[in-house]
């Protein structure tokens, strides 16, 4: 078999895509989920719900399949979904989006991010600013694009951007500012001051803002504020979201981009050679979901907030210090009381399934190795489970303190 090209090999190893022997490197999520399956532990590691989404959405997908919506959809996405996305942006945020030129349907948010980064980055002289800890795909995608990742650390327990650090990170070399808000893995919602500074610095340095807003309808207090809705931001912002988290349909992989037409065109030129198109019968179903009454969206946020509070209470009772999340699926806890002198959160998480029958993810899975010490005792738990499951997990975790 031919050798993997050297430059690609070095890039892939650096991004964690290959191990030092050139083999595909398993993710911590795969490792922890395998441990959950092997031990029968409750999986509070990977962020997927254990309940189905709204029946109207599921029924619409069944109807689409039954009525023959099973072939390639249009490259931009089905008109019904593109119009529903545009209506959603207007309804919730007052943003006017042209469904014919400024909306692109993707295979989930991760493909949207991949196509955007590959389309808009020119090479090694470009920098992409991210907020660390970050969704693990970010570093891999930046490496695939051949660009340089510039992290802005988010510090325990609030995980808010440091304004001075943000100003140092964003320069004339910054091509993209990648903003995940509400934030995975920390559960933070960025402050109005941070949002305004991101937009100001993007304008000052000519950078494009790329937002990952997949948890937009899972803000616990108040409403989500898209960066594109701030003055002067829409013309330089690529907004990315998806249906999986809002409608508990993570396996459908229906995402979307809204952006100025010239940016959508550039991104489509890459996206068409990734998945080409996807999810034909799921697209009209998600159009139905985006048109559901306000009560559905507020109810989804309220239900997840209650689960997050239940999980937080259980973690505190077990002896963890807990960062209170403002949105998303996730809660971060400090496992320091349970660590031996030479142990870190990764050691704790690998032992936890056998020790307490629960799976979690070390926060160091979401940071670069050179900054892992700052997060070495922190663990991410997912609250997107049935209350009965969270209650059982809390009881099991309580045994750690005995």
Keywords:
single chain, 402 residues, Aspartate Aminotransferase, domain 1, Aspartate Aminotransferase, domain 2, 2 domains, four-stranded antiparallel β-sheet, globular
Give the topology, please.
Blueprint: H1 6-14, H2 28-39, E1 42-43, H3 55-66, H4 79-93, E2 103-106, H5 108-120, E3 127-132, H6 137-144, E4 148-153, H7 163-169, E5 174-180, H8 192-205, E6 208-212, E7 237-242, H9 244-247, E8 255-258, H10 261-271, H11 282-290, H12 294-318, E9 321-323, E10 330-334, H13 345-356, E11 358-359, E12 361-362, E13 378-382, H14 387-398
Parallel strand pairs: 1-11, 3-4, 3-5, 5-6, 6-7
Antiparallel strand pairs: 2-8, 7-8, 9-10, 10-13, 12-13
What does this structure look like?
The protein is an alpha/beta fold. It has two domains: 6-52 and 295-401, Aspartate Aminotransferase, domain 1, CATH 3.90.1150; 55-293, Aspartate Aminotransferase, domain 2. It has helices at 6-14, 28-39, 55-66, 79-93, 108-120, 137-144, 163-169, 192-205, 244-247, 261-271, 282-290, 294-318, 345-356, 387-398, and strands at 42-43, 103-106, 127-132, 148-153, 174-180, 208-212, 237-242, 255-258, 321-323, 330-334, 358-359, 361-362, 378-382. Strands 2-8-7-6-5-3-4 form a seven-stranded mixed beta sheet, sandwiched between helices. Strand 5 (174-180), helix 8 (192-205) and strand 6 form a beta-alpha-beta unit. It is globular and about 60 Å long. The model has no long low-confidence stretch (mean pLDDT 94).
């Amino acid at each position: 078999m031919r050798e993997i090209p050297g430059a690609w090999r070095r890039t892939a190893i650096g991004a964690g895509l290959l191990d030092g022997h050139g083999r595909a490197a398993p993710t911590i999520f795969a490792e922890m989920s395998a441990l959950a399956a092997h031990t029968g532990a409750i999986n509070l590691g990977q962020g997927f719900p254990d309940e189905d989404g709204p029946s109207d959405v599921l029924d619409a997908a069944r109807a689409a399949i039954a009525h023959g919506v099973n072939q390639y959809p249009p490259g931009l996405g089905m008109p019904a979904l593109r119009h529903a996305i545009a209506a959603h942006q207007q309804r919730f945020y007052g943003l006017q989006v042209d469904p014919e030129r400024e909306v692109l349907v993707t295979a989930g948010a991760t493909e949207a991010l991949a196509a955007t980064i590959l389309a808009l980055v020119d090479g090694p002289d470009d920098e992409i600013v991210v907020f660390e800890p970050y969704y693990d795909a970010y570093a891999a995608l930046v490496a695939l694009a051949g660009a340089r990742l510039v992290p802005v650390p988010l510090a325990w327990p609030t995980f808010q951007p440091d304004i001075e650090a943000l100003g140092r990170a964003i320069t004339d070399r910054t091509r993209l500012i990648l903003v995940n808000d509400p934030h995975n893995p920390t559960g933070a919602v960025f402050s109005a001051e941070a949002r305004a500074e991101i937009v100001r610095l993007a304008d000052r340095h000519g950078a494009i803002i790329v937002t990952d807003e997949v948890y937009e309808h899972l803000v616990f207090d108040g409403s989500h504020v898209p960066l594109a809705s701030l003055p002067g931001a829409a013309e330089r912002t690529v907004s990315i979201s998806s249906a999986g988290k809002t409608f508990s349909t993570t396996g459908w992989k229906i995402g979307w981009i809204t952006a100025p037409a010239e940016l959508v065109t550039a991104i489509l030129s890459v996206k068409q050679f990734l998945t080409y198109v996807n999810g034909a019968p799921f697209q009209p179903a998600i159009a139905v979901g985006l048109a559901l009454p306000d009560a559905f969206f507020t109810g989804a946020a309220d239900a997840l907030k209650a689960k997050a509070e239940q999980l937080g209470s259980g973690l505190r009772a077990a002896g963890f210090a807990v960062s209170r999340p403002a949105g998303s699926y996730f809660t971060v806890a400090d496992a320091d009381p349970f660590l031996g002198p030479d142990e870190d959160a990764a050691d704790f998480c690998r032992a936890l399934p056998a020790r307490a029958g629960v799976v979690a993810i070390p926060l160091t899975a979401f940071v670069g190795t050179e900054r892992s010490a700052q997060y070495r005792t922190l663990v991410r738990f997912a609250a997107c489970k049935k209350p009965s499951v969270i209650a059982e997990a809390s009881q099991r975790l309580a045994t750690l303190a005995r």
